[in-house]
Design a protein that fits this description.
Blueprint (H helix, E strand, L loop, with lengths): L12 H15 L12 E6 L5 H12 L3 E5 L12 H11 L2 E5 L3 H10 L4 E3 L7 H15 L6 E5 L4 H13 L2 E5 L8 H8 L4 E4 L2 H5 L4 E4 L11 H7 L7 H4 L7 E4 L11 H4 L6 H19 L8
Parallel strand pairs: 1-2, 1-3, 3-4, 5-6, 5-8, 6-7, 8-9
Helix pairs in contact: 1-12, 2-12, 3-4, 5-6, 5-12, 6-7
The structure holds phosphoric acid mono(formamide)ester and norvaline.
């Protein structure tokens, strides 16, 4: 029986705590195991990537395994071979599959037909590995999320939806400031609201007020490039600048999953300033994904 990681609620709160402890042990050099010795990870990228590609590839190697980078230019999936067939065939060769693609349903389809763990490396709906890395960064720099307030400023996109899933599982306060028409997924939002204080506002200052964490992302995600101009108009006033950061707690940290557009969703003074933790955040991709792979593909089984 194998387990997938398609969304943060795939792990229980206790499993998440164990995962972050393992990731932190890896970060601090306290973990030196090779649970992926003799194992391989297939990495399917239907969209571009710097962090996800490099951190999964290096992380697999550090755990004793081997990773294959598969782009649509190279594999038959890009020429129309069904996802289900790709899943069945890859399962005969490899011990896990990481996929980054457009429709979330494609990842669910892959997971349905694969006999090995499937890890979501970003879809239009979710980016769970990134929000695990963000949470590890919050644990590292804010001391955890219990009783803390997280502000999301900008698009109700895959990152916003994964933060909503994290609040649902872990119970912290999450305030999202999104312009009208750019709200997060209503189903995920409604579910989270049954378990945590999660709400959407229109004013970035209202979301940032008293926040422990201020978080943003690009206004046009991958696949939305032609909407860049209309989105720039819709998101006017949503730039995270020093004035907005001043509304948050003086100890607040700034997070951005990267790549960033300085002068659009974030001012250089913030992302390059003293409250920014974006480089630790990027590094933490490596540690959390190693913890996920060790748990799902290796001998470090999650202790529910
Ligand atoms: N944050 C993130 O997923 O970056 P990449 O697109 O470079 O993988
Ligand atoms: N929301 C962004 C995240 C990139 C890591 C996108 O989907 O392009």
């Amino acid at each position: 029986m194998h387990r997938d990681f398609l969304a943060i609620p795939d792990f229980s709160p206790q499993e998440l705590r164990d995962l972050f402890q393992l990731a932190d042990d890896m970060r601090c050099g306290r973990y030196v195991g090779h649970p992926l010795a003799g194992k391989s990870l297939a990495m399917i990228f239907m969209k571009s990537s710097t962090r996800t590609r490099v951190s999964f590839e290096v992380g697999t190697w550090q755990l004793g395994g081997h990773a294959l980078f598969l782009s649509p230019r190279d594999i038959q999936l890009g020429r129309g071979e069904p996802i289900a067939d790709t899943a069945r065939v890859l399962s005969r060769y490899v011990d896990g599959i990481m996929i980054r693609t457009f429709a979330h349903a494609e990842v669910e389809e892959l997971a349905k037909y694969a006999d090995v763990p499937v890890i979501n490396g970003l879809t239009d709906l979710l980016h769970p590995c990134q929000v695990l890395a963000d949470l590890l960064t919050v644990r590292q720099h804010v001391g955890g999320w219990d009783g803390k307030r997280v502000a999301w400023i900008g698009d109700g996109n895959n990152m916003a939806n994964s933060w909503i899933n994290a609040a649902y599982r872990l119970g912290f306060e999450l305030v999202l400031a999104c312009p009208e028409g750019y709200d997060p997924d209503p189903v995920l939002l409604a579910r989270a609201q049954t378990a945590a204080d999660v709400h959407v506002v229109r004013d970035p200052a209202e979301a940032a007020a008293g926040a422990d964490v201020v978080n943003t992302d690009v206004w046009a995600s991958m696949g939305q490039e032609e909407e860049q101009a209309s989105r720039a108009r819709a998101f006017a006033g949503f730039t995270v600048n020093a004035a907005l950061m001043a509304k948050a707690k003086p100890t607040a940290i700034f997070l951005h999953c990267l790549p960033a557009h300085r002068g659009e969703e974030v001012a250089a003074e913030v992302i390059d300033g003293p409250q920014s933790r974006v480089w630790d955040e990027a590094e933490n991709r490596l540690h959390v994904q190693k913890a996920v792979m060790a748990t799902l593909m290796g001998s470090e089984s999650a202790k529910a």
